[in-house]
Specification:
The complex is a heterotrimer of chains A (116), B (110) and C (157).
Chain A lengths: L1 H29 L3 H26 L3 H32 L22
Helix pairs in contact in A: 1-2, 2-3
Chain B lengths: L2 H30 L3 H26 L3 H27 L12 H5 L2
Helix pairs in contact in B: 1-2, 2-3
Chain C lengths: L1 H16 L5 H17 L1 H4 L4 H31 L8 E6 L5 H12 L4 E6 L5 E6 L5 H20 L1
Antiparallel strand pairs in C: 1-3, 2-3
Helix pairs in contact in C: 1-2, 4-6, 5-6
The chains are: A mainly alpha (116), B mainly alpha (110), C mainly alpha (157).
Chain lengths: 116, 110, 157
């Protein structure tokens, strides 16, 4: 009975995760500029691979594997925002502009001089 | 073979299909660009999808060793993105279209 | 923080005494030592340790909830045939000022619906946030201030 539930849960999580990964990709294709694309890649991508890793954690028999899979989820969740943030900062500092139809930009361009 | 295992096998096949599609579409963005950060973002997403792929393969084959590969891939991908971001920051824009013209002299002095 | 270390040490001691280092036993030992510390809360001086750890846990739960919600928002946005996006960067004045808290706030903002932190100003008072829907900036600012920033201040002050 327990194994059946494990099978169903990990199957559902795998499909959900793969769906989110596909959504992240579609977002990266469809959204207009680098900053908006980063939204799709960092959020939907993180949830997608996180869900699939949790599926592996549910499926695994030994607790050690489950623990390692959960550690991998935590790792993905901690690194994804950092890399997105750093890439956005780098792109802005390097002078890649926002999309033409962006409504506001309150960030001073003078910040460029302060980059290290 | 029980109904649950059948369902899981089916889910694995569907997921592998979706993930392969994601790979191809990400590759499209990687090739088209149009700017360097876009390509780096595509690389980052490729790594994320790859981690998911490895997790699904791990469930499918039962070898949880794939998990370690996924963790290592995540680490390498994160470091690669960080390194590329540093590179973009120090290089500045290099004659790409989405950049304002008057910004270029400023960027060259660093 | 030192109380957390004592708690952890007591949990390891429990696992060593009961001679089984399984995950369940370690968690049980952790809960047990938390209860033991609660019993002598007057003597060790930290009355607020339990409420504080409760706030940290509720922050983590809020984080996961917001992450799933934001992935869902991105999904509906991307899959709608006519994408309605009004992206832009707005400045957010921060109340938190320690490095760790700023990092946490920036990470949380990145993983919440429709916002992505881009940069921190040099005087560490302003956070520049890219939002995918800038039609109502003041509401987004209020959401961040009422949600995450308040929770962070509660958990770490």
């Amino acid at each position: 009975m327990m194994a059946e539930i494990q099978n169903y849960i990990s199957g559902i999580l795998i499909i959900v995760g793969a769906g989110f990964a596909l959504v992240a990709t579609l977002g990266v294709i469809r959204l207009p500029d680098i900053y908006s694309r980063m939204h799709a890649a960092s959020k939907a991508g993180t949830v997608g691979s996180g869900a699939m890793l949790i599926a592996l954690a549910v499926f695994a028999e030994e607790p050690a594997t489950t623990l390692r899979a959960l550690a991998a989820v935590a790792f993905v969740m901690l690194t994804a925002p950092v890399s997105a943030h750093l890439l956005a900062k780098a792109a802005y500092a390097a002078g890649y502009r926002l999309w033409d139809k962006s409504v506001v930009d309150e960030m001073p361009s003078a910040k460029k001089e302060n980059r290290s | 073979m029980s109904a649950g295992e059948h369902f899981r096998e089916f889910a694995e096949l569907v997921a592998l299909g979706l993930l392969s599609l994601s790979f191809l579409l990400t590759l499209f963005r990687f090739v088209v660009g149009p700017t360097l950060p876009d390509r780096v973002l595509a690389l980052d997403l490729l790594v994320t999808v790859g981690i998911g792929y490895l997790a699904v393969i791990g469930v499918r084959t039962g070898f949880t060793l794939y998990l370690d590969i996924a963790i290592a891939l995540g680490l390498v991908g994160f470091l690669a993105t960080v390194a590329f971001a540093r590179f973009i920051m120090s290089r500045g824009p290099a004659g790409e279209e989405s950049i304002e013209k008057d910004q270029q002299p400023e960027a060259e002095k660093t | 923080m030192s109380l957390f270390l004592i708690n952890l040490l007591l949990a390891i001691a429990w696992a060593a005494v009961s001679a089984s280092f399984t995950l369940a036993n370690l968690v049980f030992g952790f809960v047990l030592s938390a209860v033991a510390l609660y019993l002598i809360r007057e003597q060790v001086g930290y009355v607020g340790y339990l409420t504080r750890s409760w706030r940290v846990i509720s922050l983590a739960v809020l984080f996961v909830y917001e992450l799933i919600l934001s992935a869902w928002r991105v999904t509906t946005l991307v899959l709608s045939p006519r994408m309605k996006v009004e992206p832009g960067i707005f400045a957010y004045p921060m109340k938190v000022d320690r490095d760790g808290e700023i990092t946490l706030l920036a990470n949380l903002i990145t993983l919440t619906p429709g916002t992505l932190s881009v940069d921190v100003s040099d005087d560490r008072r302003t956070l520049y946030v890219h939002a995918i829907d800038c039609s109502d900036i003041d509401k987004t600012r209020a959401d961040i201030a009422e949600g995450f920033e308040r929770k962070i201040l509660e958990a770490f002050r």
